[in-house]
Amino acid sequence: MKIIHNKWIPFGRGMYAINLFGIIFTKQHLSRVDENHEYIHTLQQRELLFVFFYLLYVTEWIVRVIQTRSLIKGYLRISFEREAYENQRQLDYRETRKNFAWRKYL
Description:
This protein is mainly alpha-helical. It has one domain (2-100). Helix content is 50%, strand content 11%. It has helices at residues 32-47, 51-68, 71-76, 79-87, 93-96, and strands at 2-5, 17-20, 23-26. A 3-stranded mixed β-sheet has the order 1-3-2, with helices on one face. The two termini are 26 Å apart.
């Protein structure tokens, strides 16, 4: 997993890191917990051959926003995010995680 520190990406306010195709772009130093969160996303992306991850991610986000009527709540209910947030403090999760574990959060 490659981490690139920069001033521009991610673009949004309140965002400090984004994982694009297994490369982490961040505006600040990441804690081990944050790195683990992003690595979980890398595993999810690899399972879905990257392109399908992004298609599912955006589709699920739209559905969740409609369900919750909130951009933030919709984001927090995406299955990929739920898996990452629930397991980000478990630093050995990378080794114990089963393939397609995000499906249980749908």
